[in-house]
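Q: I'm writing up a methods section and want to include an example of the input and output format. Could you take the sequence below and give the corresponding predicted structure tokens, formatted cleanly so I can copy it straight into the document?
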Amino acid sequence: MKQENVALMAEQDISREVLLEKYAKAGEQSVAEVRHRVARALAQLEKDPSRFEPLFFEALDNGFIPGGRINSAAGTDLKATLINCFVQPVADSVSEPQGGKVGIYEALLQAAETMRRGGGVGYNFSRIRPKGARVKGTNSRASGPVSYMRVFDRSCETVESAGARRGAQMGVLDVSHPDVEDFIHAKDQGDLRNFNISVGVSDEFMQAVEADGEWVLTHEVEPASDAFPDSYRRDDGRWVYRTVRARDLWHQIMVSTYDHAEPGVLFMSKINRDNNLSYCEVIESTNPCGEQPLPDYGCCDLGSVNLCKYVRQPFGDKPSFDFKAFEKVVRMSVRMLDNVLDLTVWPLKEQEREAQNKRRVGLGFTGLGDALIMLKLRYDSEEGRRFAAKISEAMRDAAYDASVDLAIEKGAFPLFDADKYLAEPHCASRLPEAIKARIKKHGIRNSHLLSIAPTGTISLAFADNASNGIEPPFSWFYTRKKRMADGGTQEYLVEDHAYRVWRMMGGDTDKLPEYFVSAMSMSALDHMNMVAAVAPFIDTAISKTVNVPVDYPFADFESLYLEAWRAGLKGITTYRPNSVIGSVLSVEPTSAAPQDLSGSQDGDPDRRITLNTAPSPALASLKWPNRPKMKEGNPSWTYMVEGDAGDFAVVVGHVENGRSTPFECWVNATEEQRGLSAIAKTLSMDMRCRDRAWLKSKLEALAKTGGDKRYAFELGEKTVYATSAAAALGQVVMHRVSQLGALEVEAGETTPVVDALFAKKEPKSGTDGTMSWSVDVVNPQTEDDFVLFVKELVLPNGQRRPFSMWLAGSYPSELDGLCKMLSLDMRVIDPAWIGMKLRKLLTYAEPQGDFFARIPGLDKSQSWPSTVAYIARLLIHRYAMLGILTEEGVPVEEMGVMVPEQADLFEGESNVSVQPLAGKKCPECGNHALIKKDGCEFCTACGHVGACG
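A: Here is the clean output for your methods example:
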């Protein structure tokens, strides 16, 4: 391997694109130009700007990455805040302040102004009286905090932040609030879309959960007596509304989080106990991303240091970490973040006053996962955790020492009290004695200094896609499909930094070393253990998303949260892709009897439409959207089918990639088997899906195709009889696929396409019948003259969908097999599936089978390469008439059935790339594949990186 190759790495195309789109201003074209602007702006706060500008640029060039708003707005004319996020108070009164907190609608106005200037906002809504509480002034009942959260939600949706991004919000409710159950389930039906929500839990509550004790739900305001007849007032003056079992309440939180990824859990006792300023403030909420617990009007002034910059001799015999260079940049970074507090535009005077009194900053690191890989340490090992803790300790000590130096030069923060600040169990009390002595003597400039935040697009733009924050890499590479201004798309290969360094140094990417460990390949407990190792050295908090697989056991999931509390963490966020998060149709349950189209007496549930909830799309179900290209070709198997109706050859191709995987079939047929090649073409696409059960069901259906022909042939150890060439094809392919071991579904194996069917068998109409659409097809060249029929039904969400097709008249009988295949495809909930099948058939050609016919929906005609191609076009047109596909056969709403093509289609097991996961709708590509990754929104279908928090 050659170390010099690393220094010569050109920036990735995606890095430049993100830089130009999000951070470059006024003609800037490079990272260096952005850094010079930021260094110049922050140096203006110094007595000698000319001295500090080059020092600040050096720190930026050597690994310091200020928060996104600092990079995008510092040194520009944009009147936006350089601060990412704030926490703001909300009182119980509609308009009047109470206990130092502003009324609800004043809070709403303040939040709107903050978001207009570019800041996200966190709130604790626990002061607002519960639903059913007494409102003395109007002799009425309160509507509760969740109802007011909806007002904040709509306001956030309306107010566009500076830089044209929507504001982010965090909503917190204490676990003791009487409306906590409503809060837990507030987002179940898609409400509060502009909020992250978290329950603030106390040690007392967690102890009650452990002991299976009772838990009282209380508030300062008296309940209406008829609403809560068993309520009473405690000695401390609070009203007890009702009592619940602690474990039942905890179970509700866990189930909702398991299904919806929310609410999060904040361990408020630990947050306040560890707070350096617990002597003068109480923390009740966090910023929207969770890494900054803050008091009222507190802000997060963030920046990160790229740890990959300090790895020497990566992947060598003795790789090392340059602590001296790291600590030098940490010290300068603290000075720069402190200057941000004086440079920024403050949306509110209260925020400015709070910042000046305490001068909080939040310096963290990014690239930890990649740095450990380059040091040849596994992220999920004890050795890896120890080294991460060592780096964190070095960062803490350098940051605090630098802040003491700033206090000597510029003064300590105004609310500093040495004895109280250094008292146990504050984070500052754990500092080395020498630094504590300096703080006691000179004071300290910043009350808090450390925060590990998600780095999202700043990692892409400024750190060569180093792993995000404290996270391990999510994937080694993926394809970023970016929508361009002209409406087209541009594809970029995005590589993980450590993977790229390994490749550039000559490493074998097909056999990555065991220390290349990715986020989804380690246990959830290993994720949590890394946070626990680093947390003692971080004075605010750490943003960490624990991504767990869809089949992660609920008991283990619940245990993870309990272990997080026992380990002294301040909070935990998880993401589990699942059918609820990935739901793509808004289908409301109905109390009426389900629609029964069976018409049969056997009560077969697979023949009924009882869709009260929508199945998930068949996400990530195709291995290869197109035929894979292999330089050395691929092995194939050939079988000759012989029969009275004519002979034909069947070819099944496969690839060797750890195990034999069939991916195509085709036939060499005569005129007697017209249409058989079209069946083989669509069947090849089924072979490329990640669902053996689906392929088996397609082949079994094809093998049952009837007809008036006669085939009898020896296949393996048995004699096969068939009355159509289509049925013979189905049996032959089934035999070969079974030989390759690619037909039987293994225990625990997913079946994404089968699971996405809205009817596993063709629904049968009752006596009232069902709807159908028909059209005449005539091909004079081949003498085809028939009617195409398409059966349709209405799903419970009101959408009309085709579910079966057949032909009547004069046509090649083998097309009956094609109708069987496409009818099954129609019943996949994601219309991208049938759209893909039909688009592939548009180019299907037959010798002397082309003909001239009208373009569906238009008054002009064109030449069609075959009858099959025209059928495909007619079906696409019908789907377009129903508003499901466009006339080009592309879904009106993407659901994520297609897998983005990767740089290497046949990577080894260790060569992990992004696989699409069920999630929310992506604003970039429209796929329902937007998940939370490393605290940020990330589309697993197109690679879009969205808002953090």
